[in-house]
Amino acid sequence: MAKKQFAVIGMGRFGSSVARAISDMGFEVLAIDSDEGRVQDIVNIVTHAVSADSTDEEALKALGIRNFDVVVVSIGQDIQSSILTTLILKDLGVPRIIVKAQNELHGKVLNKIGADKVIYPERDMGLRVAHHLVSPNIMDFIELSSDHSIIEMQAVPQMIGKNLKQLDVRAKFGCNVMAIKNNGKMNISPNADDNIKSDDILIIVGANKDLQKMEIHYANG
Hints:
Low-confidence stretches: none
Largest sheet: 6 strands, parallel
Structural class: alpha/beta
């Protein structure tokens, strides 16, 4: 089975880090940017790097963009170019188009014109940083929707030695412990009688407002 082929348009900080990461995983990556300097910076890292205007349909056709399985559009501040590029890719029949949005309005437009996934790297990073600042025991934060998320939470002293029934995060905060990680092993159906150990990481799902209540409760001890 042939490996997926990726193209990344826009070699700013986010686009170049995505291109580098995919390339490091052993996949073919075509990097595209209108700035020749940025292309030169990435040329030795990806499979191919070219200077091209992504709002030029003929230029994208000439690069065979429709043959790529996934195209990531990571155009900096130029929202108009981001939208036009997405429209062209959609029109050319690219199977999966992932686009970086600058803000919510930009994201709404991208969804309407057919982007398969819209990502908000600055906003998402801001959320992660905020969670780490409020509660240092929050190791990761994954947004499922605008209202619900999953957090990975390092067991705090007031949890250790108690079981899930005693903690009762569902009754207290309206959240559910989906799994417990320990030394790389994942218990995906923890028992109510399972005791929490000091090196456990709890994977918890819930409404954002409920998770926030729980985070603050445990952060304050």
